[in-house]
Give the backbone structure.
Amino acid sequence: MDFDERARPELTGLRASGDRVGVSGMSDGTADQLYFALRVAAIEECLGKAPGLPFVADDLFVNFDDARAVAGLEVLAMLARRTQVLFFTHHRHLVGLAERAFRGRLRAVEL
């Protein structure tokens, strides 16, 4: 099938029920989790081919609950073993969660 305007690709998620949902039908937190996963996958793909550029995250977990934020920060901690991770936030509680996730390998700077 040739690409045309009627057959534009669309990013969708799959619910536990098996139903598909478009990004516009997702909560802000779920959409942020999806985009975070795609960004990490893209950077990991690039790291396998060339020296890494820093991964810059600006208030990446603002729509995550604490459990999901910790999981995301642990992913960033693993990524930080391969490339520089710069995480900006104005949410103080995320700094504490990051300190736990990075297990002493975090340098926090408060402005």
